[in-house]
Amino acid sequence: MLFAGALCALSLVLNLVFINKYRTRFISPLDNYQELKQYPLVNTTLVRSNMTLLSKPSENAVVTTLYSDSYAPAVAALGHSLRKVDTLARLILLYIPSQVSASALCLASSSGFVPHPVQRIAPPHNGSGVTPRFLDQYTKLTLWTLDRLPEPVRALVYIDADALALRNFDELFALPYAFAAVPDVYGDVRGFTTNFNAGVMFLRPDSALFAAMLDAFPAARYPRTMAEQAFLNQYFATDALRLPYAYNGNLALKSRSPHVWSGVRSEMRIIHYTLVKPFITKKWDTVPLDRMQERVDEAARSYSGLFRDEMEYWGRVWVETRTVYAQQLDECRGLRSFNKYGF
Q1: Secretion signal: which residues (predicted)?
Q2: Given Cys at both, which of 38, 288, 309, 315 links 296, Cβ 3.0 to 4.6 Å?
Q3: For the stretch 122-131, what's the b/e string if a residue is b when 16 or more beta carbons lie within 10 angstroms of its beta carbon?
């Protein structure tokens, strides 16, 4: 009996030691963040040199996607933000003609994106296990086919429509890599990860690589819920260049660590509205344009106001978009289906 008790006590002690080692072993510097650096994120002199030697602005593009009408205002706002930061790259909008109305396309392209129709790529395994709102996301892989355009794209930065540009990021076009993205982060126990977020990506289009990706679908093993993001993480697992958080200001970063967010914010190039979207309803429906401010105010109150500044910023950019591109939006009003936006 005494021996059994001693064995149990020893087992408990060893388990506690193991748990303590497990907990401390995987703590990231980001979990204990200190704002120590005293240097800029980018060496601007080197950037100017590299852009001259390695890139031609006409061969670079910023690309986004539109799979449904509800995201059209977001694309317009993103386009305006890109013009504000003076990117030299072309703006290209990939859209699925069967799922996007003429009025939504007019609104989305009002601030400068040039529409480019693409065929929907159906998810593997008939979409089994995919989160319903991600069922169209495999269409994003057509980014790799833009080397086939009459004016081929040699380097591109992909940005989800639920984002805004805060500062110029043209330095990315000089990267010598095939693929780069920002590590993902979660507000829950997963925290900081090595997996990357596919909402902002740098890549070099390559139609042969696109075909190889499609061929890899049957053999690829990855969590299907996250659709193309999980597939790309598996495909580029060892080869993806991990970019600084400043290139994808995922709201989950602020949820996980407001301190890290504060340390990154002054250098942030792109803000990504992941957890809360101020331009669609909570049910993912279209928001009439004359009620957009109401939706922005509602979004600002979510998460106990954690993202109030970010929601209000999107609202200000949207007001600018409506003002600056009023003439283009007037032309959209002539389309029969535009009245659904209440504008």
Answers
A1: none
A2: 315
A3: ebbeebeebe
Q: Which of 31-40, 115-124, 242-251, 289-298 has the lowest mean pLDDT?
A: 31-40
320 — pLDDT class (breaks 50, 70, 90)? very high
Which range is least confidently modeled, 40-49, 99-108, 222-231? 40-49
Are 203 and 179 spatial neighbours (Cβ–Cβ below 8 Å)? yes
Ordered domains of the chain (ranges, CATH): 44-276 (3.90.550.10)
Sheet holding 163-165, edge to edge: 163-165, 270-272, 249-250
Q: What per-residue confidence (pLDDT) applies to 22? A: 46
Tokens of 254: 């602020």
Angstrom CA distances, 113 to 64, 74, 162, 325, stand at 9, 12, 15, 13
Find all residues with CB under 8 Å of 183, minimum gap 6, and list them.
192, 193, 194, 195, 196, 197, 242, 245
Which pLDDT band holds residue 73 (cuts at 50, 70, 90)?
Answer: very high
The size of the chain, in residues, is: 343
CA dist list (Å): 151 to 20, 209, 302:
57, 19, 44
Q: Which of 338, 321, 234 is nearest to 286 (CA)?
A: 338
For the chain, report the end-to-end CA distance as a whole number of angstroms: 81
Q: Is 63 helix (H, G, I), strand (E, B) or coil?
A: strand
Rounded CA separation 156/146 (Å): 9
pLDDT tens track for 148-193: 999 999 999 999 999 999 999 999 999 989 999 999 998 777 888 8
